[in-house]
From TrEMBL, chain A:
Swiss-Prot/TrEMBL keywords: ATP-binding, Ligase, Nucleotide-binding
Protein name, entry field: EF-P lysine aminoacylase GenX
Annotated gene: genX
Signal peptide residues on this chain, from the entry's feature table: none
Domain of life of the native organism: Bacteria
Length: 331, 175
């Protein structure tokens, strides 16, 4: 026995998978239904690199950096295939989808795992409301629940009906008071900006009621939470963004895609300024993606959906570890 | 440490919107009061660690208000409050080795041994001829605790008790 093998045996390492054989089968069957759905819809399956020289600038996401070896590789593991897939769209790919692993550092919990499976797809020529209908159809097919009800609620109505506040009008001090009033513990010790307070209220008091026995689409977000969505001018302006919740769990995020290169560049710069000011890692923004936007991205709607969470909902699993062969602690 | 009190983490849930602020929703128990509360922190925020550790100490005596314990290795003596002793008061006798949780060197809580042997000071003599012990009866022990014992066990006898659930285990010959 080699020294390594001896150590392994002695330590009684948990080498066995977390997912049961039945769970592996459920995953395979769900992926097959998804691929059949897109084949029937005429959407092309694509692959793009997991390893990129550029990284996401969004301060809410932490990319894993890969140290270069002696070769040409090195860079960052992607947090979603968004930039590369939009380059395909700009090159005239037509509707495309991808199932891939994505990586987000610092995310671990019952519903989070730093490496997870994402389904992302794009519909050139569609608007985001039409894409919401297709997301509903896809999830019904993936869950094999063709009659699952669908509900749409605007971000504004969600806060107004659930908490009696208007997220566009309420001040930071009022948001803090609201958090205290609804009994969120430790509010006095929290130092958050406006979006931070909205995230707190949403995740602690509103999410759990969404998607109970149905698919709940929350849409039209504050412009400060646009991410890569287009902002529709108006009074007030809204970001054309949506999220899908099922059984209280955030499952998908979609956009009417921002196609304006100058606006995209400004958002990257704002993200990088925020990162510098808050001591976060400074990362190289994706110049290839910006070049593609300058060349012209067709008006598109796009969405990313977490497949491990979808599988949890399909099987009733209460911990993401149950749907993974090997969670990160034993990977 | 939160607001000057030591806490232990009961549950820690990671909460993060895909495009938003990450939080940890934590359920913590106040080690002084035992009360469990929920607190939310921004992920990655640090909190002062409480200097809390467990040690084995021998219970010496109770002067009516304070409970005296001794470290069997260093012979150092410490005083525990009635609040810190809590439920353990029902079970411990002089010389018993207890688990003492110390916070900044002061006893915060006392855990009795899992099993203790105590004398029955009072119990109903029971029905003549019944030796099965089917129904059981209450018995007061020398420490004041009341446990259910089989009918055949009598006043003056020693019994072994599981302090974790307060149940009779067996009769015992000696402590």
């Amino acid at each position: 026995m080699s020294p390594v093998a001896r150590d392994t045996a002695a330590a009684g390492l948990p080498w066995r998978p977390c997912a049961t054989r039945a769970m592996l089968e459920a995953r395979a069957a769900m992926f097959a239904r998804i691929r059949a759905f897109f084949a029937a819809a005429g959407v092309l399956e694509v692959e793009t690199p997991l390893l990129s020289r550029a990284a996401v600038t969004d301060p809410a996401l932490t990319s894993l950096a890969v140290r270069p070896g002696t070769g040409v590789a090195g860079g960052y593991l992607h947090t979603s295939p968004e930039f590369a897939m939009k380059r395909l769209l700009a090159a005239g790919s037509g509707p495309i989808y991808q199932i891939c692993k994505v990586f987000r550092d610092d995310e671990r919990g019952r519903w989070h795992h730093p490496e997870f499976s994402l389904l992302e797809w794009y519909r050139p020529g569609w608007d985001y409301q039409r894409l919401i209908d297709e997301v509903a159809a896809l999830v019904r097919a993936a869950l094999d629940r063709p009659t699952l009800a669908v509900e749409r609620v605007s971000y504004r109505a969600l806060f107004r009906d659930g908490l009696g506040i208007d997220p566009w009008e309420t001040s930071v001090a009022q948001l803090r008071d609201c958090a205290r009033r609804v009994g969120i513990g430790g509010v006095e010790g929290l130092d958050l900006d406006r979006d931070g307070w909205l995230d707190l209220l949403l995740s602690h008091r509103l999410e759990s009621g969404l998607g109970r026995g149905r698919l709940s689409f929350v849409h039209d977000y504050p412009p400060s939470q646009a991410a890569l969505a287009r902002v529709r001018p108006g009074t007030p302006p809204v970001a054309e963004r949506f999220e899908l919740y099922v059984e209280g769990v955030e499952l998908a995020n979609g956009f009417q895609e921002l196609t304006d290169a100058a606006e995209q560049r400004a958002r990257f710069d704002a993200d990088l300024d925020w990162r510098r000011a808050n001591g976060q890692a400074e990362v190289p923004a994706d110049a290839h993606f910006l070049a593609a936007l300058e060349a012209g991205l067709p008006e598109s709607a796009g969405v990313a959906l977490g497949l491990d969470r979808l599988l949890m909902i399909a099987t009733g699993a209460s911990d993401i570890d149950a749907v993974l062969a090997f969670p990160v602690e034993r990977a | 440490m939160l607001d000057g009190d030591p806490y232990t983490i009961v549950e820690n849930e990671f909460v993060k919107p895909g495009k938003g602020q990450a939080f940890n929703r934590v359920r913590v128990r106040n080690l002084k009061t035992g009360r469990v509360v929920e607190k939310t922190f921004k992920s990655g925020e640090s909190v002062e660690a409480a200097d809390v550790h467990d040690t084995e100490m021998q219970y010496l005596y109770n002067d009516g208000i304070e409970w005296n314990f001794m470290d069997p290795d260093t012979f150092e003596q410490l005083i525990a409050s009635e609040q810190a002793v809590g439920e353990a008061a029902k079970w411990i006798k002089e010389q018993d080795l207890c688990k003492v949780t110390l916070w900044n060197g002061v006893p915060l809580s006392i855990e009795p041994p899992n099993f203790v042997v105590l004398e029955i000071t009072d119990t109903d003599p029971g029905l003549k001829g019944d030796t099965s012990g089917g129904g059981g009866k209450p018995a007061t022990l020398e420490t004041g605790a009341v446990v259910r014992v089989p009918l055949f066990v009598q006043t003056g006898e020693l019994i072994k008790v599981d302090t974790r659930n307060g149940e009779y285990v067996s009769r015992a010959k000696e402590a």
